[in-house]
């Protein structure tokens, strides 16, 4: 599929921001998993520190990834492509939208509640809330890993109809005057 600079830029923006987003989710998953051995006070304190700026980082990386991937899908649809140049970015976009939906339905409402928790007296159901948030986050992280893998695979293996440019071979030095 022949693509102009918009699609090349979208491909690299999707990879860059998608990679940062995925790495961020993996780090949070590791941190959250390590918190499982601590009590509600420690968990609440760490969550409130996380909530200070990490939601902003998530938005600043997920949204450009979704937009860039949507541009790739739209370009493939306009080119009437029915092969991996369409299906791989489309699958990645579906996974990214799943992440967004899970975030809006599960994680963001819990985040909003946890901002109001008191460190010295977390709610009695704090462990259940933690488990719900962490389960959703694990699904989001897996989806992000798969989406990033698909975007990387798509960038590496994409078909192109662009004809290679040839560079003229310079004349040997002996032929130059």
Task: Give a structural overview.
The protein is mainly α and 177 residues long. The chain contains 4 helices and no strands. The chain has helices spanning 5-34, 40-78, 84-115, 126-157. The longest helix has 39 residues, at 40-78. The chain is elongated and about 85 Å long. The two termini are 44 Å apart.
Q: What is the percent of helical residues?
A: over 70%
| Coarse structural class | mainly alpha
β-strand amount? under 5%
Q: What's the N-to-C terminus distance?
A: 44 Å
In short:
The chain is mainly alpha-helical. 75% of the residues lie in helices and 0% in strands.
Topology:
Blueprint: H1 5-34, H2 40-78, H3 84-115, H4 126-157
Helix pairs in contact: 1-2, 1-4, 2-3, 3-4
Distinctive features:
single chain, about 180 residues, mainly alpha, 4 helices
